[in-house]
Amino acid sequence: MRGLLILLFGLWVQAAMAGGFATHDLTGLAEVARTALGPDATAQVAPVHLSLHCAACTGAPTLELQLGRLTDGTEKRVRSGRTSFAALEAICIQRNPGCRLSTLPAGRAIGWLSVYALDNGAGATAVILRDGDLLTIEAQAADRGAAEDSVRRLTQTVLPQIVGP
Hints:
Layout: H1 2-17, H2 30-37, E1 42-46, E2 49-53, E3 62-69, H3 74-80, H4 85-95, E4 100-103, E5 110-118, E6 121-130, E7 133-141, H5 144-163
Antiparallel strand pairs: 1-2, 2-3, 3-7, 4-5, 5-6, 6-7
């Protein structure tokens, strides 16, 4: 009986350690995210959604951060190499011929960044996955460089706190 209890405790500890992102609430990150975008940026936040806008910043970016879940097997396929980043980029190009996709350093998570043209400017989307948890960061700006730069700046600032060690 004692051995069974030790085994169950060990399994419980492993399950607790594999819980996806370190945080599931964006409210505590609003100010640091706003500051990372620029001193004139504004923010609106809810636990799983953060909106940022900076009309005075280069390219006037607008960003949306969204926490959610993705349990369709995408993360497993990408981590295992069954779905390559080249395959993800091909899907992106089918939707938007100007799309370019690159890997995104994300600690223990896995991530990628796509940059693409829009009717009125450009967009960039970061996708970060860890144990089924999903963070998307979408930007719209006047040009590709501004959209990509704003997503990368925000990712560097908030990702370590969201993904965790």
